[in-house]
Structures are given as structure tokens and as C-alpha cells.
Here is the input.
Amino acid sequence: MTPQPPASRWTAAQVAGIAGRPWRPCGLITPADVRRIAPGLDVWDLWPVQEIDGATAVIGGAEIWFALSAPAVGDPVERHGRARLRLILREGGEWRDLGPALPDGFSPGSREWSGSAIIDPGHARVTLFFTAAGRRGEASLTYEQRLFQTTADVVGAGAALCLEGWTEPRQSLASDGIRYDRADQAQGVVGEIKAFRDPAYFRDPADGAAYLLFAASLPAPSSAFNGAVGLARADDDSLRTWTAMAPILHADGLNNELERPHVIHRGGLYYLFWSTQAEVFAPEGPIGPTGLYGMAAPTLLGPYVPLNGTGLVLANPAQAPFQAYSWLVAKDLSVSSFINHVGAAGPLAPEGEAARAVFGGAPAPLEIINLDGTRAW
Here is the structure.
């Protein structure tokens, strides 16, 4: 294996360029677009079961998705402390709830955060990669984050489909505090905690090897805003063990969270995407809008250059800066996200009862992007 090049960097100069370049926002989401998966349930951070090559899998004529979920009560920010994985069916553009994805008491964490999932070529078995936040049974919620994986059999089809026989969760990767921050804070504030989460599977067509990308934080940064995109390589095709590699991208001094990073390979280029929010940029600026960002490179390891010169691919409209979040680009260039705050304007997101009144907690309408070299629109 060739030596890994230095991590690419997302810079303040690149983000500062957003103000001088035209960009097209997402379509405006209205209350009529809010179609909840189930009454009294918030869902967010959705991802589909994928084929090994990254294509969205069609299983028995439908797509199977995972999402984070929590009861739709109280301040929506508090949902992160109650998050459980949910299984969802998508067929004909409609979404249907299939119930909790994992059994009660199964997860190694006190709650479950984002990940990814793949299915074997025979569509008989699904492998789920996810983030265990905290520790099962902890008296007070902590912000420790660990990457786990488990597999299950596909049983039934359509609305009767379920995943059964989950294997004991196996830790995919642990941070040693050398390549990545351990992300083991006992306390924290949403938007300020350090990251070791959001494992995203990718098989590189160049070498046939399997990789996990994940949201990370640098261990010895120059700033408190030290978000990074981490990488690990599977030791063999069993995917049971992984070797941590150095980050492929970082935003030290610029941004704290490069969330849900993922890669698609298209037209000979590797497109790395991530989501981030305006509030997690360093306050001294520059500050980009809440949106989907990306870079392109000739190899998975880089070097990466920002799409559109700035990294910005799409963002919420100015009149609704908090309307959607957590974008995921599929191999066919469709982009999923969830409805966050519908119609909320102003420089700060609503809080408490005001936030609950406008929180969508449902899948957002799909967007479609186009890619041409280092241009995206």
C-alpha cells in the first residue's frame, strides 16, 4: 500500500469565497411537506441499505432505510439523548415505519447515532455500522462515541420485512488518541462536542478494499474548531477488523463538525461530502451557511479540492436557514435529508417550545445534484 498523503484542508479562504459566488439554495420546504413516519415520532439522519458498490439496494421491490428516532416531545434538541435506530420502508416515493431496528437493551450505548448499512449480493444479510453514544446503563448521559457493527438476516418482504438474528455488536474501530481525539467527554453541548461517529461504508473500485469514513476531531489541534474526516481500512473481506488510517480532510481553525462524511465514485473522481451547520464554524469567521459541502480528488486518499471553489454544494434558502439538515448523496446523485425547522428565520435557531412548534422530524423532499469535475449544482 502506498504511503498516505497529508490530509487535505478545508480553509477559511475557501469558505470566505462563498459570499462572492452565486449558489442555488434548496427548494423551500413548507408545512405541507412534513409527512411524519408515524404519529408522535421524530425521525432524522436517514440512510438507505446499500449494495456493496454504493447503489441504493432494492429489496423485494422496495428500499429499506435506517433513521434515528425519538418520541416527538419537548425541545427537539433533547432528541439526541433518546435516539434509537428505526427501520423504514420506502416504496413509490412513500415512507412507512417498520418499527425499532434493534432490540431493547441491545446497543452498547445509552443511545444510537448515525451510521450506514450494506447488504450482501444475495440480499440475505444486512451489515449495519452505527455509533454507540455513551454506555448502556450509565446514570447520566455522556458524550463518548464508539463505532460498532452488527449483522442480521433479511426476513419477509414489503411491509412484512424485518431484520432478525442480530449478531452481538462488535466494535469496528477505537480511537487511540493519537490519530483522532478520543471523543469521550462526560459532558458537552450539542455543536461543541468532539466527534468519533457516523461510520460510512465505501468500497474503493481502485483497489477493491472496503473503507469506513467517519466524523472525527484532530487530537492535537491549533483550535477548538478541529473537525476532520477519518478513515479506516478493512483488514480483509470479512469486514470484522479495521485498521485506522490518518484523516483525509480536516478543518482545523475553521469548523468543529464535518458530519456524516461519505464518498461516491463518479467519472473517475472521488467525491467526498459532509454536512455542517453555521453555528459550528469558528466565531471569528468566515462562517458558511448550514448546508452540504464537498470536495473531489483523483484517489480516495486525495488530494481533495473544494467543489465550486468553496466546498458549498447546497444550502437552505436565506428565508429558512434551518429548514433541513443531514444531507446524504446517493450514487444516483439524489440527496436525502430531514426536515428540521420549517419556516424559522433569523440568525439563531428556535429553542424549547418555539422549536417544537416548527420542528419537522420527517424525511425532507429529495434534491438532485449534478456533478461535472469540480463543479456541483
In short: Residues 278 and 288 are 6 Å apart (CA to CA). The helical segments are 12-16, 352-358.
